[in-house]
Automatic annotation (TrEMBL):
InterPro entries: ARM-type_fold (IPR016024). This is HEAT repeat-containing 4. SUPFAM superfamilies: ARM repeat (SSF48371). One of its GO terms (molecular function) is oxidoreductase activity.
Amino acid sequence: LGNIGQVTTRVKEILLRSIRSDVPAVRIEACHCIATLRLCDTDVQSALQDQLVLESNEFVKREVNQTLTAFNIKNEGNQQMRSLIQQEMSRLCQEEVLIPKVLKLDESLEEGPQKTGLLIDKTQMDPKGFIE
């Protein structure tokens, strides 16, 4: 795909979707194609930087990093994003935040399926996904 030499909106969409594929080899090949096509707009940069933060596979992470380096893109945004994610995870996993929410859910389960259904519906509407 990287050798076609032309970038259409559809090609870009496919590559952006491929960066988030479940298959590591597909993510690696998407990086190769992006580098070969010199596809370096803000959408692609942002997707690559996000993927670098979220990526668990070391081979893919290395490929994403090489692609960013080929475009002379620094990873400063990644450190900031990683820090924000870690802070939020730490906050959400604190006992004083987590335990009341679990107890409230447990309470509602004991009250019956109607109450639980209302609670679940409420959380699905909540944009943050938290049980208040």
